[in-house]
Design a protein that fits this description.
The protein is an alpha/beta fold. It contains 35 helices and 25 strands. It folds into two domains: 373 residues, Glycogen Phosphorylase B (Rossmann fold, 3-Layer(aba) Sandwich), CATH 3.40.50.2000; 317 residues, Rossmann fold. The chain is globular. Its EC number is 2.4.1.1.
Length: 811
């Protein structure tokens, strides 16, 4: 590609002041920080847009194969600093902002996070967009333009309260509406078969229409002219107001249709523990995939005049099961609008759609009530029946009529449509996201499907955008890496291996320790500004930040903290390495147990932090409203990374990779990508504990009795008893104790916290002892950084391109 054009501070100042005048009618002296932010965003958007138009021309002229990455979540975070960094303009833009009389750090902080996702799934999608663009893969991401992203979390009296997250006020500066590419999505109505001289047709009548308006967020790659797009679909009504009703004074009724249509893109993941929530969630999924598939087909037809070669020019990557309806929707278009026969249409679909599985949890493998799909999507239902019937017949023949094999693999069974099974049936590739996870998919979750079609199944271990999660967020560490001669790591992450040459270099190790200490002080200052909490930076920063879910076992961490506190109260001279425990987590609004664990963390924090016996030795802080921009501050400061999920439950994890890359050491189980981290680190550079996945399965098979661990371990018994007693703030946690010992309508201690407690505590003792030897700790930290390159998203995308997409990437 042609050489990159760079902009000087003066050029950027002129462009920014021009935007202020033309778009906001302000001179720089009159501009607020909000005007300034938008002006800067628009300047960068223009630069990226030029590259995007050139990229589109090249893709079209060379008829390149394209990737379409469908994900209901894209947790993009902030874009101003990221785009400036990727464009090579961060230094001149910062200088331009300062020269115009504004504080660049404050301006970067004013941008809201684009929180269009819950956690790892959406953050992974954002990392992959960055890598696809940097590696010059022609790609488009697709999702919904949620008006409200994941909620803002407020902690009130120790409890999570959800507030709306209106990110579009400033975030829309990055969005380019493409009204002329609006698609029409249909819901409800009835479907009739029509036969005439030209053959069979399907007639769909009585449906409701929602318009899908694309709003494109353009993605800048690092050190390349190539650009890609994240297309976010906004839901609009074709008839915003019923003027007849409005004229007769029925004002609310007049705008009802508009409100119902726009509800689809109102909020990320409505609660689906009631019929209306399920209906809205299914509408969201179909809305986004229908608009996406129609858009891809329309552009392809305009370029080639036929869909016969569609599967040769496009790969549709389904990120988890949420976009699965792309399969019957593409079939619908090929059958009903293009007139293809079933076999020809099925050949195209099954050669262009691929599926990434992100979970082994049965409750997360989506199943939709048959009645709901029949009512909302009558034509899609007909196509699903046909796919399901043909697949079931194939399975029945293959397994010689053995229904015990057929039933778990069926697409429609027991009044439900199983989306993961539809993906396994129709997709040409199915991948897990870590070696262990992919192994479990083959041996357990999709075992019989794997035996039948082993060539479909593969693994692509997750990766992170190391440019954002190391270089950009940890500039002091980036400087050290460059000084050690490994500067090419930004495009060749494996170059980090060169750091290992310095693992016995006292100067480098000392500097690494100083960088971590400075990052801790910087993070503590940020926390003090945000919340008034003063962190003890002399203590080890022990961090667990991720979605709050029982299998991630934040509760195990808390049980250990309670045990430490009890020992401190028994013996003020009790010897252990001082810890500052940092938690960050959002619980799904309807997940009562997860919300209770957040309250427990805050109860324990209040007890510990006010007790003089804990001063300078033990501190517990719950970081409110965990999000991408907070993580960017926290990762460089973290020292011990808690990756403690029950073995066999976490598909991969990506937070574990971010911590490792920033020099934190991991205390963890052999679960998800921890397994591969252990493979590259060895026993000596990670603190492992707990049962392995096979041992977990065996223990559950034999009949796990958590009560026996409680009875036979006095320390553990005392901790669980404390849950029954409470922590002096009036909050009761006897329900959590009962859940651990006796279950709550399910198995007791489903995620084996009590079984792993002793091993976890021993691993903490080991970590604490190593921490007291700074040279040894810094050596382990350096090795973690040096061996983290394999967990860069660039490696993941190269794997996808080679193993699944059959697309060349930038050398």
């Amino acid at each position: 590609m042609s050489a990159l054009h760079t902009y000087s501070k003066k050029e950027l100042m002129n462009l920014i002041t021009g935007k202020l005048r033309r778009n906001f009618g302000r001179d720089v002296e009159e501009a607020t920080s909000l005007h300034m932010f938008k002006a800067c965003a628009l300047v960068l958007r223009d630069i990226i847009n030029e590259r995007q138009l050139a990229t589109e021309d090249r893709v079209s002229t060379e008829h390149l194969r394209q990737v379409h990455y469908l994900s209901l979540e894209f947790l993009m975070g902030r874009s101003l600093m990221k785009n400036a960094y990727n464009l090579g303009l961060l230094a001149p833009l910062t200088a331009a902002i300062e020269a115009l009389g504004f504080s660049a750090p404050d301006l970067f902080e004013t941008e809201p996070d684009a929180g269009l996702g819950n956690g790892g799934l959406g953050r992974l999608a954002a990392c992959y967009l960055d890598s696809m663009t940097t590696l010059e893969v022609p790609a488009t991401g697709y999702s919904i333009c949620y008006e409200l992203g994941i909620f803002k979390q407020k902690i009130v009296d120790g409890q999570q309260v959800e507030l709306p997250d209106d990110w579009l006020g400033l975030g829309d500066a990055w969005l380019i509406p493409k009204m002329d590419e609006t698609e029409e999505v249909r819901f409800g109505g009835k479907v009739e078969d029509v036969w005439d001289q030209s053959g069979h047709h399907v007639k769909h009548t009585g449906y409701d229409t929602v318009l899908a308006v694309p709003k494109d967020m353009e993605i800048a790659g690092y050190a390349t002219q190539h650009s890609n797009v994240l297309r976010l679909w906004d839901a609009k009504s074709p008839t915003p107001v019923d003027m007849g009703l409005f004229s007769s004074g029925q004002y609310l009724k007049a705008v009802e249709q508009q409100a119902m249509a726009e509800t689809i893109s109102k909020i990320l993941y409505p609660e689906d523990n009631h019929y209306e929530g399920k209906s809205l969630r299914l509408k969201q999924q179909y809305f986004f995939v229908s608009a996406t598939i129609q858009s891809i087909v329309r552009k392809h037809r305009a370029e080639y005049g036929t869909l016969r070669n569609f599967h040769q020019k496009h790969v549709i990557q389904i990120n988890d099961t949420h976009p699965t309806l792309a399969i019957p929707e593409l079939m619908r278009i090929l059958l009903d609008e293009e007139g293809y026969g079933w076999e020809a249409a099925w050949h195209i679909v099954t050669h262009c759609v691929a599926y990434t599985n992100h979970t082994v949890l049965a409750e997360a493998l989506e199943r939709w009530p048959q009645q709901l799909i029949q009512t909302l999507l009558p034509r899609i239902w007909q196509i699903l029946i046909e796919i399901s019937g043909r697949y079931q017949q194939e399975l029945t023949d293959y397994f010689h009529g053995d229904l015990s094999k057929v039933a778990p693999m069926a697409i429609i069974w027991g009044g439900e449509v199983r989306m993961a099974n539809l993906c396994v049936c129709a997709c040409f590739k199915v991948n897990g996201v870590s070696a262990l996870h992919s192994d479990i998919l083959k041996k357990d979750v999709f075992h019989d499907a794997y035996l039948r079609t082993p060539e479909k199944f593969t693994n692509v271990t997750n990766g992170i955008d190391h440019r954002r999660w190391l270089s950009e967020c940890n500039p002091k560490l980036d400087e050290l890496i460059r000084d050690c001669g490994c500067g090419e790591y930004l495009l060749r992450p494996d170059a980090l291996q060169g750091l290992e040459r310095y693992k016995d270099d006292a100067g480098v190790l000392s500097r690494l320790g100083e960088i971590k200490a400075a990052n801790k002080r910087s993070f503590a200052a940020w926390v003090a500004r945000e919340s008034g909490v003063v962190l003890n930076t002399d203590a080890m920063f022990d961090v667990q930040v991720k979605r709050l879910h029982e299998y991630k076992r934040q509760l195990l961490n808390v049980l250990h903290i309670i045990s430490l506190y009890q020992h401190l109260k028994d013996d003020p001279h009790f010897s252990f390495t001082p810890r500052t425990y940092l938690f960050g987590a959002k619980a799904a609004p309807g997940y009562a147990v997860a919300k209770k664990i957040i309250r427990l963390i805050n109860s324990v924090a209040e007890l510990v932090n006010r007790d003089p016996a804990c001063k300078d030795r033990l501190q517990v802080v719950f970081l409110e409203n965990y999000r991408v921009s907070l993580a960017e501050q926290l990762m460089p400061a973290s020292e011990l990374s808690e990756q403690i999920s029950t073995a066999g439950k976490e598909a991969s994890g990506t937070g574990n990779m971010k911590f490792m890359m920033n020099g934190a050491l991991t205390i963890g189980t052999l679960d998800g990508a921890n397994v591969e981290m252990h493979q590259v680190l060895g026993d000596e550079n990670i603190f492992l504990f707990g049962l392995k996945a096979r041992e977990v399965a065996e223990m559950k098979q034999k009949g796990y009795k958590s009560y026996e661990y409680y009875v036979h371990n006095p320390d553990l018994k005392r901790v669980v008893d404390q849950l029954n007693l409470g922590f002096g703030d009036g909050a009761a946690y006897d329900d959590l104790a009962r859940r651990l010992l006796f279950g709550d309508g399910g198995p007791a201690d489903e995620y084996l916290l009590l079984a792993d407690f002793e091993s976890y505590r021993d691993a903490h003792v080991r970590a604490g002892q190593v921490y007291l030897d700074p040279t040894r700790w810094n050596q382990m930290s350096l090795v973690n950084i040096a061996r983290s390159g394999i967990f860069a998203a660039d490696r993941s995308i190269r794997d996808y391109a080679r193993e699944i997409w059959d697309i060349p990437v930038r050398a």
